Amino acid sequence: MAKVLVTGATGNVGQEVVQALLAQHVPVKAAARNAEAVQRLAEKAAWQGDYEAVALDYANPESLVAALEDVDRVFLVTPTMGAVAEMVTAFLDAAKKSSVKHIVRLSGMRTIDEPSPTHAESERLIAESGIPYTFLRPNFFMQNFNTFYADGIKHRDSIALPAGEEPISFIDVRDIAEVAVAAFTQEGHANQIYTLTGGEAITHYDVAEAISAVLGRKITYINMPEDKFREVLIAAGRPEAMANGVIYLYAPVKQMLAAPVTQDVQRVTGKAPRTIHEYARDYAWAWARD
Ligand SMILES: NC(=O)c1ccc[n+]([C@@H]2O[C@H](COP(=O)([O-])OP(=O)(O)OC[C@H]3O[C@@H](n4cnc5c(N)ncnc54)[C@H](OP(=O)(O)O)[C@@H]3O)[C@@H](O)[C@H]2O)c1
């Protein structure tokens, strides 16, 4: 049976896609730049079933050709920063010479009808390749709080961001993975676009409260003014470009663009999206003090 190639398999969404595909007995090639790192993750997460850890680097065309052997479907993830369109172009060059019949692309939401600017060109390139696609455009991930912001929660009991006070319909990446699996295993998802949100729009104050409730200690959201946020990051030795990147990321939130709630998760998976309370309960380990 041909396999699904899951790129970004060491990342937030990719690892959940691998897990969810294996649970459906779909054979998987799990790929990131370092195959040993994928294998270590496989052992830690106790992946069961027909999977293979492979090395894939968008900068190395030979690795793309090798990773695409025996593959008929692909979950395509690129990093948030960097030459994303070039990576997608390199991947499509290899995919066009392979047996790939469906690409499920992890894109991003700007509004209900638009991809995020980072992803717009990649979506266009994929659509023009002629390979059937499904674009998943998720809103902000809940899992940002157990990755990027875990340190502040764990050590300073705070989430300090220039994210404003407007609500966001955060999504749990496990729901994105379930939509991806449906797209791979059911009919009717070719050339479809899904805007993926949680079931409600909540503020960062609500997120802090949900995490406080599972930890039994108070976590505070600090709505940082943008200038102050930039100053603090620079004083901590971080590049100004990084501070500006975070500020840019939250600009649409302040225009209420991240607040809409869609029904796409429910429509595709038949299940309501996970809530912030389920998320906080399942990831409490990430913020526990040693
Ligand atoms: N965070 C959010 O709130 C959010 C919201 C909407 C959309 N998104 C989108 O989600 C995507 C990121 O997904 P994620 O959070 O699951 O990923 P992630 O945790 O940031 O991990 C990135 C993955 O890409 C792999 N990678 C990096 N450079 C690579 C290269 N040159 N060649 C091959 N693989 C490479 C990494 O593997 P190794 O480093 O192990 O090689 C890793 O598996 C981005 O496109 C972002 O725009 C994020």
Plain-language structure description:
By secondary structure, this protein is an alpha/beta fold. The chain has 2 domains: 3-138, 3-Layer(aba) Sandwich (Rossmann fold), CATH 3.40.50; 143-170 and 198-259 and 272-290, UDP-galactose 4-epimerase, domain 1 (Alpha-Beta Complex). Helix content is 43%, strand content 17%. It contains 12 helices and 11 strands. It has helices at 12-23, 35-44, 61-67, 84-96, 117-129, 150-156, 173-185, 204-215, 226-235, 240-254, 264-269, 276-282; strands spanning 3-6, 28-32, 51-55, 71-76, 102-106, 109-111, 114-115, 133-138, 158-161, 192-196, 220-223. The protein has a 7-stranded parallel sheet, with helices on both faces. The chain has a two-stranded antiparallel ribbon with strand order 6-7. Strands 9-11 form a two-stranded parallel ribbon. A hairpin with a 2-residue loop joins strand 6 (109-111) and strand 7 (114-115). Helix 8 packs across helix 12. The longest helix is centred in the last third of the chain and has 15 residues, at 240-254. It is globular. The N and C termini lie far apart (45 Å). Bound molecules: NADP nicotinamide-adenine-dinucleotide phosphate.
